[in-house]
UniProtKB/TrEMBL annotation, chain A:
InterPro entries: Alpha-ketoacid_DH_E1_comp (IPR050771), DH_E1 (IPR001017), THDP-binding (IPR029061). Residues 93-392 form the Dehydrogenase E1 component domain. This is 2-oxoisovalerate dehydrogenase subunit alpha. It catalyses: N(6)-[(R)-lipoyl]-L-lysyl-[protein] + 3-methyl-2-oxobutanoate + H(+) = N(6)-[(R)-S(8)-2-methylpropanoyldihydrolipoyl]-L-lysyl-[protein] + CO2. One of its GO terms (molecular function) is branched-chain 2-oxo acid dehydrogenase activity. Its cofactor is thiamine diphosphate.
UniProtKB/TrEMBL annotation, chain B:
It is an enzyme of class 1 (oxidoreductase). This is 3-methyl-2-oxobutanoate dehydrogenase (2-methylpropanoyl-transferring). GO terms for molecular function: branched-chain 2-oxo acid dehydrogenase activity. GO terms for biological process: branched-chain amino acid catabolic process; generation of precursor metabolites and energy; response to nutrient. Keywords: Oxidoreductase. Its EC number is 1.2.4.4. The keyword Oxidoreductase applies. The lineage of its organism: Eukaryota, Fungi, Dikarya, Basidiomycota, Agaricomycotina. It catalyses: N(6)-[(R)-lipoyl]-L-lysyl-[protein] + 3-methyl-2-oxobutanoate + H(+) = N(6)-[(R)-S(8)-2-methylpropanoyldihydrolipoyl]-L-lysyl-[protein] + CO2. Residues 1-176 form the Transketolase-like pyrimidine-binding domain.
Length: 453, 334
């Protein structure tokens, strides 16, 4: 939408021809010197020994696309993505909902009511700007800090609470995974897995699968979120390579928030961030100010358009800052200054930047802000209170979903063994008696009819 | 000293005594997520104690390179659950480095530390006991300490052992177990089990965290709480159980285990990993081979189930003291 279509077509055909490996005589570009080319590529022969370590011609760092300045004013000449009031409000409300939810769940973790939590403080623009740029049925493979994508798609607060509390309404993993490991086929969001980067090559496979489904070919992409830390795993390179080579319409969104737990991004890579790697795989790549929701929206929309059109991987690197601790198991002041965090929060607040823009368009007011905050707080608290009292799934679920189809003998036998133990000790052994009370049905479904359980 | 301090103490001695030693891994420079490397970067410098980018296969491969040059490489994998990206480097490379070069090269200087086992609320990916996956990797050693003293002595021995060692630290013990740990440099031998409590009626074998559940079970056996009294026949309360800590999982101390089982005629093995092809399967097979005529009961395995570790179900997944007690009773009654 930023570029005239004609120019894009020209660029794409250029890309194709320059990447084609052919034994026919290549067209000689105008700037070539007289030594010709390697036989099977367009690599020009040169008599100059010249090293390079940057993807930018002048050795400069890859620039960062921005639309709004720190007070929400469009930069001069900025390409502002198309957005209407209703859409802007939806984005903004979700940007406020996300930290509201985070604050409640962070606090209830501190009170010991859930076992773990991870906030997305500071990354609201990256997460919601990108979510808003996608089709709601693009398949998302996320890392773990992207619950905002689900909120955008209408995953309910009840579903969020159910997963974090692991109660019997939790469909994400039936209480099997730690908090924040959401998943929902209905919302086209594959279940989060803790091992980092595993979703990256999987996303390339998902993208390819989409091209094999007639109704989705050329319409949907796979979207893969990752942190800049996870991008150091071998799986990152595997996934990028597959999506560009096979190829497969996969949109990679790297959230570069400056930290992987305690490790600053300066110790994560020596090169020019994650974006510098895209061209290595022949991928369209862009770096964007991840705290500028309009820039993220615009960049991801265009990235997605290219991804659909070329059927090949595209990379977006969103530069942001992890304002919160890594997780509830982390105290980030052991490795970064409190002041640094306070400064970042003040100087570059993604929510404030967008709010100021909204106000300047007459789309938002102080009164609405107050009302929204109060309403969201109430909604979140209400959902938590409702979920808090609910029991877990039935105990029998411990043994389900290991295999599909016929249940193997060992699982059957082991469930029988537990049933026998529960019959013997379930009442008399206090730790088990107390624990059983937390499951829906208190384990009776196993004890009553163990054969068919 | 508790266990994470004992580990730190051993690491500091290793760095102090061996100029070639370096320590590296994810987040270790600020002390590591379990604080085992706290202060080491400040004390020994960032050249010797450093963060790596987030890549387990890279970390182990890098360590193999260091060790191949005769240096001491002490790598940390942040959780045992995340050791799998390095599986190829460990099983195909570290384990086979010596054999494939006809003994010309080896990576004996490599030690890979990783926190292991469940804490009660870790779910699928923070609770695993993956030691069994390495049982077939001849050339590797696998060591699991039970306490601060053991952690220090076994870690120093692992670092100095002429073979690559995976050193798995039960994470629930980092803070809970406290002992008077000698401050000097000492080693405890690898591949030697410890008899924690001698006995003649049944051998109870485990390693790491479940040893503590075993101790609780033994206590309940001899002095049952009122609610359990009906379950425990008087005649069995005085049973004399031998409790063994295997300590080194690969290569394991077959001599001590077989000698014990020949004496008691009964073996119960406890581990947190699932039953199928867990370490207990290997030990059970060897014991039935070597002790067949002495056995009074089948070898019993009390293990996690053959499922992933489901978060909300963990209390019924982990082989806890009641399950161990029941296994002992059943095996005694057999
Ligand atoms: C394979 C693997 N190794 C290590 C970990 C432990 N771990 C969890 S999150 C994390 C840091 C990830 O940082 P990044 O990818 O930048 O994401 P962020 O937390 O900043 O959003 C680490 C090391 C893991 N979950 N999986
Ligand atoms: Mg990060």
């Amino acid at each position: 939408m930023f570029r005239p279509a004609a120019r894009l077509l020209v660029r794409r055909s250029l890309l194709r021809s320059s990447r084609a490996i052919t034994t026919a005589t290549p067209q000689v570009p105008a700037h070539a010197d007289t030594h010709g080319h390697l036989p099977s590529s367009h690599s020009r022969i040169t008599s100059k020994l010249r090293f390079f370590n940057s993807v930018m011609e002048d050795g400069e760092q890859i620039p960062t696309y921005r639309v709004l300045d720190s007070v929400g004013k469009p930069l001069e000449g900025a390409e502002v993505p198309e957005i209407d009031e209703a859409f802007a409000r939806k984005i903004y409300e979700n940007m406020v909902l996300l930290p509201t939810l985070d604050t409640l769940l962070y606090n209830v973790q501190r009170q010991g009511k859930i076992s773990f939590y991870m906030t997305a403080y500071g990354e609201e623009a990256t997460i919601l700007g990108s979510a808003a740029a996608l089709a709601n049925d693009d398949e998302v493979l996320a890392q773990y800090r992207e619950a905002g994508v689900l909120l955008w798609r209408g995953f309910s607060l009840d579903a969020i609470m159910a997963q974090c509390l692991g109660n019997h309404e939790d469909l994400s993993s039936k209480g099997k995974q730690m908090p924040v490991h959401f998943g929902s086929p209905e919302h086209h969001f594959l279940t989060i897995s803790s091992p980092l980067a595993t979703q990256i090559p999987q996303a390339a496979g998902v993208g390819y699968a989409l091209t094999r489904i007639p109704s989705r070919r050329g319409r949907n992409v796979a979207v893969c979120y990752m942190g800049e830390g996870a991008a150091s795993e071998g799986d990152f390179h595997a996934g990028m390579l597959l999506a560009s080579t096979i190829p497969s319409p996969t949109l990679f969104i790297a959230r570069n928030n400056g930290f992987a737990i305690s490790t600053p991004s300066t110790e994560q890579y020596h090169g020019d961030g994650i974006a510098a790697r895209g061209p290595g795989y022949g991928m369209w790549t862009v770096r964007v100010d991840g705290n500028d929701v309009l820039a993220v929206l615009g960049a991801v929309r265009e990235a997605r358009r290219r991804c659909v059109e070329d059927g090949r991987g595209v990379l977006v690197e969103a530069m942001t800052y992890r304002v919160g601790h890594h997780s509830t198991s982390d105290d980030s002041f052991a490795y970064r200054a409190r002041q640094e965090v306070e400064d970042r929060k003040r100087v570059d607040n993604p929510i404030a930047r967008f709010r100021l823009y909204m106000e300047s368009r007459g789309w938002w007011s102080k009164e609405e802000e107050e009302l929204l905050k109060t309403r969201l707080k109430q909604d979140v608290l209400k959902a938590f209170k409702r979920a808090e009292g609910l029991q877990r799934h039935e105990l029998k679920e411990m043994f389900t979903d290991v295999y599909g189809g016929e249940e193997p003998w060992n699982i059957k036998e082991q469930r029988e063994e537990l049933v026998g133990l529960l019959k013997k000790y379930g009442n008399d052994w206090e730790p088990w008696r107390n624990e059983l009370a937390r499951f829906k049905g208190k384990g009776q479904e196993l004890l009553g009819d163990s054969k068919s359980a | 000293m508790n266990t994470f301090q004992a580990v730190r103490d051993a690491l500091s001695i290793a760095l102090l005594k061996d100029d070639t030693a370096v320590i590296f891994g994810e987040d270790i420079a600020f002390g590591g997520v379990f604080r085992c490397t706290m202060g080491l970067a400040e004390e020994f410098g960032r050249e010797r104690v450093f963060n790596t980018p987030l890549t387990e296969q890279g970390i182990v491969g890098f360590g193999i390179g260091l060790a191949a040059m005769g240096q001491t490489a002490i790598a940390e994998i942040q959780f045992a659950d995340y050791i799998y990206p390095a599986f190829d480097q460990l099983v195909n490379e570290a384990a086979k480095f010596r054999y494939r070069s006809g003994g010309q090269f080896d990576v004996g200087g490599l030690t890979v530390r990783c926190p292991t086992m469940s804490v009660g609320h870790g779910g699928l990916y923070h609770s695993q006991s993956p030691e069994g996956f390495f049982m077939g990797a001849a050339g590797l050693k696998v060591v699991i300490p039970r306490s601060p003293i053991q952690a220090k002595g076994l870690l120093l021995a692992s670092i100095r052992d002429p073979n690559p060692v995976i050193f798995m630290e039960p994470k629930v013990l980092y803070r809970s177990a406290v002992e008077q740990v000698p401050v000097d440099d000492f080693e405890l031998p690898l591949s030697r089990a410890d008899i924690l409590k001698p006995g003649s009626d049944l051998t109870l074998l485990s390693w790491g965290t479940p040893l503590y559940h075993c101790e609780t079970a033994l206590h309940m056996l001899s002095a049952p709480p009122p609610s359990l009294e009906p379950h425990i026949p008087q005649s069995l309360r005085s049973a004399n159980i031998e409790l063994i800590d295997l300590k080194t999982i690969l290569p394991w101390d077959v001599e001590s285990v077989v000698e014990s089982v020949k004496k008691t005629g009964r073996l119960v093995i406890v581990h947190e990993a699932g039953m199928t092809a867990g370490v207990g399967a290997e030990i059970g097979a060897v014991v039935q081979d070597k002790c067949f005529l002495k056995l009074d009961a089948p070898v019993k395995r009390i293990t996690g189930w053959d499922t992933p570790v489901g978060l909300q179900f963990e209390k019924f997944y982990i082989p806890d003291s009641i399950r161990i007690l029941d296994g002992i009773l059943e095996t005694l009654k057999y």
